[in-house]
Amino acid sequence: MKAKVGIVGYRGYSGVELVRILARHPGVETCLLEHREETGPASPILHAEPPECLPCDPQVVHAEGLAVVFLATPPEVSMKLAPPMLDAGARVVDLSGAFRLRTPANYLAWYKETHTQPELLTQAAYGLPEFYRDQIPGARLVANPGCYPTAANLAIRPLLEAGVIDRGAGIVCDAKSGVSGAGRKPTLKTSFCEVTENFSAYSILRHRHVPEVLQVSGLEEGEFSFTAQLLPLDRGILETIYFRARGVGSAEDLLAIYEKRYAGEPFVRLYEAGHVPDLHAVAHTNFCDIGVTLDARTGRAVVVSAIDNLVKGAAGQAIQNMNLLLGYPETEGLR
Amino acid sequence: MKAKVGIVGYRGYSGVELVRILARHPGVETCLLEHREETGPASPILHAEPPECLPCDPQVVHAEGLAVVFLATPPEVSMKLAPPMLDAGARVVDLSGAFRLRTPANYLAWYKETHTQPELLTQAAYGLPEFYRDQIPGARLVANPGCYPTAANLAIRPLLEAGVIDRGAGIVCDAKSGVSGAGRKPTLKTSFCEVTENFSAYSILRHRHVPEVLQVSGLEEGEFSFTAQLLPLDRGILETIYFRARGVGSAEDLLAIYEKRYAGEPFVRLYEAGHVPDLHAVAHTNFCDIGVTLDARTGRAVVVSAIDNLVKGAAGQAIQNMNLLLGYPETEGLR
Amino acid sequence: MKAKVGIVGYRGYSGVELVRILARHPGVETCLLEHREETGPASPILHAEPPECLPCDPQVVHAEGLAVVFLATPPEVSMKLAPPMLDAGARVVDLSGAFRLRTPANYLAWYKETHTQPELLTQAAYGLPEFYRDQIPGARLVANPGCYPTAANLAIRPLLEAGVIDRGAGIVCDAKSGVSGAGRKPTLKTSFCEVTENFSAYSILRHRHVPEVLQVSGLEEGEFSFTAQLLPLDRGILETIYFRARGVGSAEDLLAIYEKRYAGEPFVRLYEAGHVPDLHAVAHTNFCDIGVTLDARTGRAVVVSAIDNLVKGAAGQAIQNMNLLLGYPETEGLR
Amino acid sequence: MKAKVGIVGYRGYSGVELVRILARHPGVETCLLEHREETGPASPILHAEPPECLPCDPQVVHAEGLAVVFLATPPEVSMKLAPPMLDAGARVVDLSGAFRLRTPANYLAWYKETHTQPELLTQAAYGLPEFYRDQIPGARLVANPGCYPTAANLAIRPLLEAGVIDRGAGIVCDAKSGVSGAGRKPTLKTSFCEVTENFSAYSILRHRHVPEVLQVSGLEEGEFSFTAQLLPLDRGILETIYFRARGVGSAEDLLAIYEKRYAGEPFVRLYEAGHVPDLHAVAHTNFCDIGVTLDARTGRAVVVSAIDNLVKGAAGQAIQNMNLLLGYPETEGLR
């Protein structure tokens, strides 16, 4: 029997991607949960083959026996909706930043707003299966990671664990994202004429996603320099990561660390030494692709990490987490 | 001595283009006229080298002795601002559709709103210099043509005048425009992710610009099929125009008609038979480029007409009209 | 047991799309057939999960028992390869223009080269299942239709059959295609800097795909005006088709004709009156989407037809034909 | 009287940009020098208003009295052409990498080819006027800087001179360029379908432009990590530069260093603290725009430097150098 799952925020780009991927998932039946704070027209894809649409109401969620509710909503809406959805018996995968940080103080520091559900912060599992796989199946609430931190943490943490990064010299993560990462709400910054033939940096050194990298990697803020930048394209994140390597003699040495750490991981792909991924390689997939360059003489290393921001950076990873919650094979619907 | 001119609507794409071109015009000093109905941030180009900014107030316009005021505003705002600007002694070049049609009834039929200044409709000159050059210098108010009709009328009218189009079979004008033609106000339709890798038709057979073509060409509505379409690019209009030719034996015959009609015209360029313009050829220029293909055996003809929608389709032509109003060489600032 | 199929021309965009779609097809095992005339690097997608690669040799094709060989090659290569592949026992789906026209004379007239396998022209089925479904299963050789004619014929033929088009006034088909339609071989015309922010017409009135429309629709050349144009995007074809309707009073009347003709067709989708498809609606799908606008007063009609040029316009339709050849459900692997 | 100047390599993107800018320069008359090693069609812009075209022959150069010859050619062609052009009495501005490095050994190390004109290396002035202005007017040969090093050196050198960069921690320069930087010759890497919706890194840590940065800034290779990356757009370079600052308390302190160093410089623009340029700000201009962000607590600094790769990164800077050679105002034709 198929599990029934619901999506709040189906008008946004992540929500549509959830619908699209779940349509091919053999183990679930999907419904849309209409929430009054959501406005704007639905994606045309939903006109073509519309799933069932229900009100986003705890009683309905309970009556329908929804096993999982995806919240593809802004953090302030997710904070409001998570408690009633949980009370209605659903498990929640939240795609916003609402439940990713461990403390209300940290949330306040980076999101500039007081967290209204601080007790849920400690209950939420951080849904990066490659590092927290054992914590997810038993969780009621999964905080789906940010898109930038997914690409960064998968690239950085294995090397930090192996002790081959000179933390004193600092790590630089120069990140570039497609426009869909900014959401579907029309703004001047995401207007076609402002973006085409353009490239721009924003939130330099103070992007909201930085604390997720610090939390997962154990780095101090002063050790990690991060810039987010807007590419004139629809989907994809590519991060170019710079550091000083120590105790390794070649790119192959760094790759060996990744290979050991990610042996058996279905969604991390490694490139041969000197080769790095581009965005076409990961578009419309749940893969994180990683490539390494090392100048052995000076220790300067460059790691390139690429994902599709709407798949491994949002909807795909959320479904990976759903598979863990429901006991399905982790790759179900994602190949 | 330089004439002083003002721009209302300088935040929009046409307004910025006016600022940009006028900055190179040796005969004018430009100021921005701040109007409270305009919102949103100004273009960065205006931060770099900002012209003087004054309130959009008739007394200021009079005191400053503005010779010309450009209205790069929506039609309803232009209808409100034109009378006080004219009363303040300025001549007005309006870039909206407010004063292009000859009758209030026609305006109501296509714009679905009642015209509030019907008496100005008969006073306004239609600012297509290639056909109405003698009416412009003496006008107080110039209605700058729409972008689509500029490309269409320059291509169609000479051939109609020469009688080589079989009107009974109808003329098809398949028009494509860059996104800047839709203005700078953020909308879902003009969001990057909706436009990139996309192409879409809108206002099929009932675009507001159609009556301008009928008015200038003398065609009946039933003889002219027009579709507007959105290209995933910033600027440019290309129109592919189909008709049955009669009384001509070759593309050269059609070109000869254009050559005669446009002899000495500084802003119309003709291509050799069988060659047609693309958008790169006209980008950032005030040219309208025209090319012709004819199948002599069957009489089927295709004319391609291309302009930059922000230049010959808006700001450039407006300055061409300003040059006529102020007695400057028509090409001043536009080469 | 899975049928084994081979792909010649797997380095091109259509070839890669065949690999991609067949990877999800439950009924076939795919191999690549290496042909010495093909050069250039393979698509990165083939590095990630490479299918078996064999020499393009009749003996190998016979020994491996290939049920179907796809030729994603230029027409002159297809003419050379089709006979030995057929002799080796495989059935052939050719994606080039080599076998689409019925007579060598017609081929010479449009392709400007002598056909080297004229006897195969009469044996080949034209692989547009919506109109020739009964001829395909028994064919040894299927000529997969051109991308432009697929979108055009699906839109035009039902209306011609119903007699609602005034043929005397002529039909205009203004066609726009993404760049992948031009193939993967680097040329100046398909270089990024030449295409971005550009739009251009080519092969006006004399595109090689025109005779396919005439052959399927029964139109005379003088009744059909066709222009191909290059969009600054990767994939998608949209055709805007103009004609005079007769004997119909509304867009709904035209839609009713389509609905009747396409009842049960899995890959044709119709839009409500006044609504038309854009390219996002069909990207990465095997659908042909059709929408209609009619000005009842004057009879002017505009039909918009959209497909993904690499799917319904090439690889998808080729697999649809393969399904018919092998007795699989026609939609297998294509949803 | 106008000086006469010639352009070799006018078919390429830099060559066309030279033609375009020089057409507006009041002090020169331009001619094209046809060189047999150049192939491919000329840019359409040259059809519209073609300058005089002469053979690229020393006798012609001498007879015509060309004051300056621009070589917009590959390094191996520039090495061949520079000596005869100099012998013919012209001064040479070379846009390739042939004469930028001081020693043949360095050239061999980075360009992997033996330099054929080593004696010219010591005679050539490095044409970055902001740092070598006094050496240019008297030079016979000017090596126009690379596009990447222009943006990098203008951002880095003032801060190194002021001693506010912790060189021990290293400098990271993450560079992104539009596709026109790769030249006009068709390649798979610069094909539209490969570039659109894509972003890719290349020549990581070993780009040919690196030694120009080392030479101008005095950095050691081990102190400077550089990655070049391809943006899906036509023109523009943006570099995001990371380092540890010392001895400064705020972004304003860093800006004060730039302001002092660049006082009176016509082509360097500085942004307010916390603001950084994007590519639209510099497109089609000869400006280098620089913005600074500093985390005062940890010393982490990010500088963003942006230019138009075809203008300040190539043709514009070459004309700036020509102005210095001919004694014209440095900004002539470049505003």
Inertia-based shape of chain A? globular
Beta percentage of chain A is 15-25%
Q: What is the CA–CA distance across the termini of chain A?
A: 21 Å
Helical content of chain A, roughly?
25-40%
**Which fold name fills CATH's third level, the topology of the largest domain in chain A?**
Dihydrodipicolinate Reductase, domain 2
Output the CATH class name of the largest domain in chain A.
Alpha Beta
Low-confidence stretches of chain A: none
Q: What are the secondary-structure elements of chain A, in order, as H or E?
A: EHEHEHEHEHHEHEHEHEHEEHEHEEH
Largest sheet descriptor of chain A:
7 strands, parallel
Q: DSSP helix count of chain A?
A: 13
Order of strands side by side in the largest beta sheet of chain A?
A: 3-2-1-4-5-7-6
Total strands of chain A: 14
Backbone CA Rg of chain A: 20 Å
Structural class of chain A: alpha/beta
Query: Would you identify the CATH architecture of the largest domain in chain A?
Result: 2-Layer Sandwich
Q: Supply the number of structural domains of chain A.
A: 2
CATH superfamily of the largest domain in chain A: Dihydrodipicolinate Reductase, domain 2
